[in-house]
Amino acid sequence: MVIFNNQKTENNQNSWIFVRPGISPREIVQKVRELPGVCFVSVGMRDAGQSDYKNRLRIYDLETLAPYYNEMGLFSAECHGGARWHVGIMNRRESPFEEIAILRKLMPNVLLQTLIRETNLWGYRPYPKNIIEHVVSVVDIDVWRCFSFLNDVRNMRTVAEVVMKRERLFEPAISYTVAPWFDTQYYLKVVDEIVALCGGVDEIILCIKDMAGVGTVKSITELIDAIKQKYPELVINYHRHITDGLAIPVLLAAARAGAKILDVEEDTIVRFYGHSPILAVEAMLREEGIPVHLNRSSAEKAVQKVREWIRDYEWAESPFKGFDHMVTRHKMPGGAFPSSFEQAEKGGFLFLMPYILEVMSLYNQIVKYFDVTPGSQITWVTCSGIVNKYAKEKGEAGIKHVIGLLRKFVEEKNQNFNAMEPEEQAELLTLFRGAPGDFKNLILGHYGMLPVGWPADWVYQSTFGDEWQEKIKERKETSPLESIPDEDLSTLRKQLDEELGRPATEEEFILYLMHPKDAIDFIKFREKYGDAPLVLPTKVWREGLKKPGDKVDFELDDKPYTIELVSIGNETDGVIHVVLKVNNKTKVFNVETPRARKTEIRRATKPNEIGSPINGTVWRIGNPQRGTLKVGDIVRKGEEIANIEAMKMENPILAPFDAQIAEICVKVNQMVGEGQLLFVLQPLEKTT
C-alpha cells in the first residue's frame, strides 16, 4: 500500500474530499484555513487550454479527466469562463451550460470554478448592471473568480453582491504585474478595497492573478507576507503563468509566505504559456516539508489520461515555442499568447510578432494597466495596428523607425514630450490616430478608472486629433455600473425569438446576451447538426473521414452509431456529392464549395462611399441609441453607422459628413475585407 501526505491511503479515496458543492462559502473558507499546508486548483479544463491551445480543448476529451478529479482532493476545477465561453460557441460548437451539466454528473465532489471579467462577464465590453445581475443569478457555478484588468474594485460590486447573495463563493482577484508604478503598497490598497466590498475575509478567497507570470520570489514573498500581516485570516490563492520559466520556485515562495491555494494543471498538458505541472509542484512542496492535500494516485491517472488525446491538439499550439523571459518586458499574458499568434497568422503578419511584442513593451509604459482580457486585446490590437501601418507604408525600415522613436521617447527622454524634436512630436501625435474604438473607450474611462491615472494629454491629441480637448471633457470617473443604462431584457429576448423563429431557452438567451452574433450562429449550427460536437472523436471532428472505408463509431442518447465514408464525387458547378453509410443505410449529401457561391466584392473608391477600414465581421448596422439603420435614413457627422468586429474588438464606423443613406452594401454577420464597400452616402445639401 502506498502512503500519501497526511497519512491517507490510495484505497481511502473519499477522505481526500474536504470541500464539495453545496456547503456554504464560510464553511469552505474555514476548511481551507484548517488544512495543513496547501491545496490545488486544477486549471486543466479551462486556463490550460486557453493559454496553450487557443481554447480548442473539447469537452469530449476533458470529461475523461472527471473521474480522477472527483477523487483528487482538489479545492476546485476551473472548467468555465474566460474566453473558453466564447470560443466554445464560436469554434468548438459547445455550450458552456452543457459543459457544466456534464461535469456536475461526472464529478459531484468537485467545486466548479469560473473566471469572470467583472462588468465584462465572459465578453469583451462592459455590460449594464441588469444584464450582469440576470446572468450571474442563473449560471450554476460554485466558485466565481472575478478580476478587473484595471483593479477598479468598484466594477466587481454587482458580481460580488449576486454571488454572495446566492451563497456561492466569491473569489475576487488582484490583477498583478511587476512594474515601478505597481508596488506592494498599491496592491495592499486594492486588497483593502476588496475586503471592504465583501464585508470582511470570512466568506471570500483572495486570488493574486499573475497573468503574465512575471512575479519573482522576492516580489511575491513580499506581497503575500504584507497581505497576511494585515489580514492574517484571509485565504490567498496564487495564480501564475509559467512563460518566464521561473514559476515553480515562485510557487514555493508563495506557499512559504502563506498562500493556501495554488493553480496547477496536468503535467502532460503543460507547454509554455499556461501553468505549472501538478505532480512536479506536489513533489517539490513535499520535499520542502510543506504538506500538500492531493491524492497523487488520482492525479497521476489524470496525467496519463491526457497523454491519450493531447496530440490531437498539436495543431492548436502556438508557433512560438519555448519559455520567454522577455515576457517580463512585453507582459503578454498566457491566455492571449496563442490566440494573438493565431490572429496574426490569419492576418498574414505572423512574421511581425517580435516587433509587435517590442512595441507592446514600450506602449505599456505609456498607457499603464494590466494586460489581461480585455486589456490584453486592446493592447494587442492597438500595437499590431501600429506595426502593420508602418510595415505597409515603409516596410521593415518603417517598423524599426517607429520602435526607435518610441524607445527614445520612453527610455531616453523619460516620456518628456517637449524634449523630442518637432518632427518627432508631430509623428507621435499621429501614433494612435488609427487606434481601435476600445482603446478610445479605455482612455475615456468607459471601462473604469485606469490604475495609476490617465495618460498624458498628447495621447488624447494623438488619438482624437483636433477634438482631443472636447474628448477629455467626456472622460468618465465613475464605474461602468453607474454610467451604462440598463437594457430592456424583454426586447432583447423578443429579438432573439424573432431571429430563431421560436421561443429561445433561458440558456440560449444568456449566450445571446454575451455574444449576439456568435450565439445565433451557434444555435443554428446545433439545430442543423445536433449533438455532433459532443459525441464525435476529436480527430474526426477536426479532420472528418478522409478516404472510402474510413468510419467512426460513437454513442448518442445511449444508442450506438456507425458512419462510414463510401465515396466522394467530383466537383460539378461547385457541388460535390458525398455518399455515407449511417448504421448501414446509404445516404447522399450535397456539399457546396466556395465556388458555388461567387459574389462580387465591391470596393469603396469614391468620397461618398464608405469602406471597411479592416478585415472583420459586420456585427451591427446602426448604433445602440438609434437602432438599426436603413436606406433613406439621415445620419449626422460622427454618428456611428456600423460596427466591425475584429480580433474580439469593436471598431465603430462613423459617418464622415451629414448624409442620407443611399445604399447599404453589407449585412449583419457578413465577413468583409479591408476597403470593401459598406455604404453609399448622399451628402445633405447645406442650407443658407
TrEMBL record:
Residues 38-300 form the Pyruvate carboxyltransferase domain. GO terms for cellular component: cytoplasm. GO terms for biological process: gluconeogenesis. GO terms for molecular function: pyruvate carboxylase activity. The keyword Zinc does not apply. InterPro entries: Aldolase_TIM, Biotin_BS, Biotin_lipoyl, Carboxylase_cons_dom, PCB-like, PYR_CT, Single_hybrid_motif. It holds the Pfam family Biotin_lipoyl. It comes from the Bacteria. Residues 601-682 form the Lipoyl-binding domain. Keywords: Biotin, Ligase, Pyruvate. Its EC number is 6.4.1.1. This is Pyruvate carboxylase Pyc.
